[in-house]
Design brief:
Helices cover 52% and strands 15% of the residues. The protein contains eleven helices and six strands. The chain has a six-stranded mixed sheet with strand order 3-4-5-2-1-6, sandwiched between helices. Strand 4 and strand 5 (78-86) form a beta hairpin. Helix 7 (147-171) runs antiparallel to helix 8, helix 7 runs antiparallel to helix 11 (238-254) and helix 8 (175-196) crosses helix 9 (207-214). The model has no long low-confidence stretch (mean pLDDT 95).
């Protein structure tokens, strides 16, 4: 029995597969092949009717209806987290990142919550268990939307804010704070470079994995890792490191096209 069939059989056996399920797909580290022995298995299930059981919880979402149902089970020692989405809710999220909204100039942070943005990113990288055609349809809608432009604009804006902090902090002699702001700016710029190559996740813990996956010409892994680990940082001359990183951030930002 293949893994896909086994996963679905576990859900059926426990009465956790909704009737009329349009799609079921694994997301997160397991879907990417980045999981380890203690990683959860995250599965999204999509149907037309809300999921209800005697054990389900809820997570609020700024959608209609304003929540998704959740279940947690353990299979062979691994924690499974299930999230039940409605097909209409998925459509609502994708509609939020239309080109018309992007052209209005509304920041993505005012349109999508972190969880909604993560869901769209996970749809693009998921491993379908059932309803692959539905997944492919949603991916096509996301790719035709302004999602990439929204993420790039937001990452660049965040980086610019941090770089402005660097300038002000250095000018006032607050070099230690400038070091922290430079680190934050670099993280946002790395996310920008990755998003420009279609890698939209923004969790810091996976940046090194995403850089290895994308291998962007403008930021080879060794260069990225040297900055991430502050390899050239001199505690006796922190300003030099800050200025080098700020310069790199500006150069990388200039290369990105929205």
């Amino acid at each position: 029995m293949n893994d896909h069939a086994a996963h679905l059989d576990h859900l059926r056996a426990r009465g956790l597969l909704p009737a009329g399920c349009r799609s079921a797909f694994i997301v997160g580290s397991v879907a990417r092949g980045w999981d380890n022995a203690v990683s959860d298995l995250d599965i999204c299930l999509v149907s037309d009717e809300p999921w209800r059981s005697g054990t389900n919880g809820f997570e609020p979402m700024p959608l209609e209806p304003a929540e998704i149902a959740t279940e947690v089970i353990h299979v062979d020692g691994r924690r499974w987290e299930l999230k039940y989405w409605l097909d209409g809710q998925v459509g609502q999220i994708i509609d939020k990142v239309s080109w018309s909204r992007f052209e209005d100039g509304t920041p993505s942070g005012q349109l999508l919550t972190t969880w909604e943005e993560e869901f769209l990113e996970r749809l693009l990288t998921c491993r379908p268990l059932a309803g692959e055609d539905w997944v492919l349809q949603q991916r096509a809608r996301i790719e035709a939307s302004a999602f990439r432009a929204f993420v790039l604009t937001d990452c660049l804006s965040n980086a610019d804010d941090c770089l402005e902090d660097v300038v002000g902090q250095l000018a006032s002699g607050d070099v230690h704070s400038a070091v922290l702001s430079a680190r934050l700016a670099f993280g946002h710029v790395v996310d920008t470079v990755l998003a420009a190559h279609g890698e939209f996740g923004r969790s810091p813990k996976w940046r090194s994995r995403r850089i290895r996956e994308v291998d962007p010409p403008s930021l080879p892994f060794d260069r990225y890792w040297a900055v991430e680990t502050m390899r050239t940082f001199d505690p006796e001359d922190p300003r030099r490191w800050v200025e080098e990183v700020a310069g790199l951030c500006k150069a990388l930002s200039m290369e990105v096209e929205i």
